[in-house]
Amino acid sequence: MSLLDFPIAVFSGSEDKLADPKDVAWTVSQFKPESVVFNHEYYLGHMSFAIAKDMSWFDVDLMAILNHYNDKCDDKTQNSRFEEGNKKCSSFFLY
Fold it and tell me: pTM value?
Protein backbone atom coordinates (compact mmCIF):
# COMPACT_ATOMS: atom_id res chain seq x y z
CA MET A 1 0.00 0.00 0.00
CA SER A 2 3.01 2.27 0.30
CA LEU A 3 3.05 2.49 -3.49
CA LEU A 4 -0.32 4.24 -3.63
CA ASP A 5 0.23 7.81 -4.70
CA PHE A 6 -3.09 9.65 -4.41
CA PRO A 7 -5.02 11.38 -1.59
CA ILE A 8 -6.48 8.91 0.91
CA ALA A 9 -9.18 9.77 3.46
CA VAL A 10 -9.75 7.31 6.31
CA PHE A 11 -13.06 7.27 8.16
CA SER A 12 -13.18 4.74 10.98
CA GLY A 13 -15.31 3.92 14.01
CA SER A 14 -14.14 3.35 17.57
CA GLU A 15 -17.06 0.94 18.08
CA ASP A 16 -16.49 -0.96 14.81
CA LYS A 17 -16.29 -4.71 15.47
CA LEU A 18 -15.46 -5.61 11.84
CA ALA A 19 -12.76 -3.01 11.13
CA ASP A 20 -11.13 -2.92 14.54
CA PRO A 21 -9.42 0.41 15.38
CA LYS A 22 -6.07 -1.40 15.83
CA ASP A 23 -6.38 -2.88 12.34
CA VAL A 24 -7.32 0.50 10.90
CA ALA A 25 -4.30 2.09 12.59
CA TRP A 26 -2.03 -0.58 11.12
CA THR A 27 -3.55 -0.09 7.67
CA VAL A 28 -3.05 3.68 7.84
CA SER A 29 0.58 3.14 8.88
CA GLN A 30 1.15 1.26 5.63
CA PHE A 31 0.27 4.28 3.47
CA LYS A 32 2.74 7.03 2.66
CA PRO A 33 2.17 9.69 5.34
CA GLU A 34 1.77 12.41 2.71
CA SER A 35 -0.96 10.38 0.97
CA VAL A 36 -3.23 10.34 4.03
CA VAL A 37 -5.05 13.67 3.81
CA PHE A 38 -7.69 12.84 6.43
CA ASN A 39 -7.83 10.28 9.24
CA HIS A 40 -10.52 10.49 11.88
CA GLU A 41 -12.05 7.94 14.21
CA TYR A 42 -15.72 8.57 14.99
CA TYR A 43 -17.76 7.09 17.83
CA LEU A 44 -19.55 4.79 15.40
CA GLY A 45 -19.91 1.10 14.67
CA HIS A 46 -19.50 -0.55 11.28
CA MET A 47 -23.08 -0.08 10.04
CA SER A 48 -23.35 3.38 11.57
CA PHE A 49 -21.52 4.79 8.56
CA ALA A 50 -24.56 3.81 6.48
CA ILE A 51 -27.56 4.12 8.82
CA ALA A 52 -26.63 6.26 11.84
CA LYS A 53 -29.01 8.89 13.19
CA ASP A 54 -26.14 11.39 13.10
CA MET A 55 -24.68 11.46 9.59
CA SER A 56 -22.72 14.70 10.08
CA TRP A 57 -19.50 12.82 9.26
CA PHE A 58 -20.90 12.57 5.72
CA ASP A 59 -22.64 15.95 5.42
CA VAL A 60 -19.72 17.90 6.81
CA ASP A 61 -16.42 16.03 6.77
CA LEU A 62 -16.75 13.88 3.66
CA MET A 63 -18.35 16.68 1.65
CA ALA A 64 -15.56 19.05 2.73
CA ILE A 65 -12.97 16.64 1.32
CA LEU A 66 -14.88 16.13 -1.92
CA ASN A 67 -15.40 19.88 -2.29
CA HIS A 68 -11.72 20.54 -1.67
CA TYR A 69 -10.56 18.19 -4.41
CA ASN A 70 -13.17 19.60 -6.80
CA ASP A 71 -12.20 23.25 -6.11
CA LYS A 72 -15.47 24.15 -4.40
CA CYS A 73 -16.33 25.81 -1.13
CA ASP A 74 -19.58 25.37 0.76
CA ASP A 75 -20.44 27.21 3.96
CA LYS A 76 -22.08 24.02 5.33
CA THR A 77 -18.66 22.34 5.50
CA GLN A 78 -16.75 25.31 6.85
CA ASN A 79 -16.36 23.78 10.33
CA SER A 80 -15.34 20.31 9.21
CA ARG A 81 -12.56 18.22 10.68
CA PHE A 82 -10.76 18.54 7.32
CA GLU A 83 -8.44 21.40 8.26
CA GLU A 84 -6.87 21.80 4.81
CA GLY A 85 -10.29 22.48 3.27
CA ASN A 86 -11.25 24.86 6.08
CA LYS A 87 -8.09 26.90 5.49
CA LYS A 88 -8.60 27.02 1.73
CA CYS A 89 -12.22 28.14 1.99
CA SER A 90 -11.89 30.49 4.96
CA SER A 91 -11.28 33.49 2.72
CA PHE A 92 -14.58 32.82 0.90
CA PHE A 93 -16.66 32.94 4.08
CA LEU A 94 -16.09 36.01 6.21
CA TYR A 95 -18.57 36.13 9.06
Answer: 0.86
